[in-house]
Amino acid sequence: MVFRKLPGVSASGMGLRLSQKFVFLLFLSGLVTLCFGALFFLPDSVRLKRIFLSKTETQPVTVGSGSENDVREHLKRPREPEQHPRGFTSAKGASSSSSSSSSGGGGGGGSSSSKLKGSNRKPPPPASREAAPPAAAAEEERLSGGKAQEDLTLSRSRTDTVSQRATASDQGSHSDTFSYSGFTACLLKAPLGRDYGKPGDQNTEQRREKVKEMMKFAWDNYKRFAWGKNELRPLTRNGHIGNMFGGLRGASIIDSLDTLYIMGLMDEYNDAKEWVKTSLDLNSNGEASLFEVNIRYVGGLLSAYYLTGEQVFKDKVLELGEKLLPAFNTPTGIPRGVINLGSGTSWSWGWASAGSSILAEFGTLHLEFMHLTELSRSPIYKEKVMNIRKLLNKIEKPHGLYPNFLSPVSGNWVQHHVSIGGLGDSFYEYLIKSFLMSDKTDDDAKRMYYDAMEAIETNLVQKSPGGLTYLAEWRGGILDHKMGHLACFSGGMIGIGADDGAPEKRQHYLDLAAEITHTCHESYSRSETKLGPEAFRFDSGGEATATRLSDRYYILRPEVIESYMYMWRLTHDPKYREWGWEAVEALEQHCRVESGFSGIRDVYTTAVSHDNMQQSFFLSETLKYLYLLFSDDDLLPLEDWVFNTEAHPLPVIRRNCQQGGATQEQTLPE
Q1: Using one digit for the tens of pLDDT, what is the confidence trace for 613-624?
Q2: Residues 141-176, buried b or exposed e (16+ Cβ, 10 A)?
Q3: Which is catalytic among the residues 150, 473, 534, 646?
Q4: Fewest CB atoms within 10 A around its CB: which of 44, 157, 537, 595?
Q5: How many CB atoms lie within 10 A of CB 662?
């Protein structure tokens, strides 16, 4: 064939002839084939393979447990099916005999408004696979629009979970899989009691049944109008998603699992379980509050698994726990407050001072992460939270107090603002509960808690002219005589910690707990609706009342009722049950609407204006604590269970437990 020359182009500019081009292309294709073969078959090609693999294939993930370049290597481990007694797993028709006997060492002791115990309740806002390459992720800090953004280079597995792996080193004779039957045998008492916590007197039983009816009413309306959404808007009869959970759905479902179960609402529980099994999609790609996802989703799934033994809850919680690990990839190991669950990118809240992390956020991970290590047999979760504690022990505390803002980059306090309410609260709660959950073996948590209590009493505990004890806030040495509704959890916290401090201070702590709980009850009784405001003050001649319009609302919060429940269990003083019933009557009168329960905008007027939001924590906390208040103490006994800050019960971890005449060691290497 003859090729026509192009006008103005010489023969030499025509390039290669057809035969030459064919030979050249043949050579080039062979070279490409050889290179690709090398990428996929040479032994050290893992990092190169990762470039070409699809996102649905298993890929290595780089995580840090303290510093940016700290990477753990984990091995794949196949799951073993869990065996659990059916008698243990059925709430209403369950026989608890399998768990009622035990042998073991001593007794242990957003939405429209974020639950964030780290702001104003709260505000409104992994582990690597086979031979993970060291330092596979580099971080670049930048400030943009008030956010300290951290971009991570991650490859995230969509199919593998932490439950399939554990570290290869130092396992020794330790059990490498979690035994559900072993766990139930180590409980001192049956979780649901002798008769599901049914109280002995008829009046209390009627009150308990009323709380159960409230839960069913709230649940039925959520299911009818907002199923699969995060929360119910009862006035407009639709669902609310919000941007607090990073694209996750069904917050009210996850938060309600254990409440439905312990109340014996088994049809409703089974509907919730089926939704988790078929519709809970954890492969979201949104911006989530690390704190909120941990206390609601991780806590709720952990609790549901421990109460029922259903494998689906364990699988889901380990998959989700893995997605939270990149938040810890900071220079100090202090996690940032916001994480994209899809990419692993994390940053601090835009409103947080100088890109800070919040004390009540990074300090409210310990209970859940210790149990993630228990279930997965991977120490990575424990390492993350122990690293936080190590840093807090190292840095100086002004007057022994823990300020609310800490830089995840420098590890220094950013502001000297101290609060037992929003921004700080659940950090202190988790110190004493970490000690109790460890079967009273975590001496470090015990020391930190009682040292903090001494500083709180010295600097924050105040007495009003009218004789009310309250916890003020501390701003660089200046007291703000305000107490938030969120701080009212502290009555219960101080109460459950009374037994394990200095013996001569036991009664003192019980008295202090009772005084604070009384003050919080006064904030309720002094309002027209008999519900408490968001915050109340002790200045300008007023006591236990809100003086600002912005503090007069009530959003179905649980903290006051939480303290009633603990104080009832500790003292059996009947006034706590009476105060709880007052709250039930107020909720029914002012917050119950045709299609659910709603918060109100002003507790000081009976012409209420509703906020059109049934918070998920109302189902998880408020109604659960009321139900427990009117139940016998053997329903979720405190010897065996510790409640996370969303009221999800987590079991005491008993390291040495006699089972079948042999000691089953459940520890992991430090």
Answers
A1: 999 999 999 999
A2: eeeeeebbbbbbebbbbeebbbbbbbbeeeeeeeee
A3: 534
A4: 44
A5: 7
Give pLDDT tens digits for 365-414: 999 999 999 999 999 999 999 999 999 999 999 999 999 999 999 999 99
Spell out the SS3 assignment of 348-417.
CCCCCHHHCEEHHHHCCCHHHHHHHHHHHCCCHHHHHHHHHHHHHHHCCCHHHCCCCEECCCCCCEEECE
Distances (CA, A) of 267 to 92, 216, 270, 272: 10, 11, 5, 9
pLDDT digits (tens, 9 = 90+) for 420-443: 999 999 999 999 999 999 999 999
Assign 96 to helix, strand or coil: coil
- Band of residue 25 on the pLDDT scale cut at 50, 70, 90: confident
Residue 405 phi, psi dihedral angles, 5° rounding: -125, 130
Residue 408 CA: distances (Å) to CA of 44, 245, 333, 449:
35, 22, 7, 22
Q: How far apart are CA 643 and CA 392, in angstroms?
A: 23
Long-range pairs of 28-32 with CB within 8 A, sequence gap ≥ 24: none
Catalytic residue check, 534 = yes
- Contacts of residue 462, Cβ cutoff 8 Å, sequence gap at least 6: 469, 470, 471, 472, 479, 481, 538
Contact 250, 230 (CB under 8 A): yes
Place of tokens 């840090």: 64
Closest C-alpha to 643, from 314, 371, 445, 420: 371
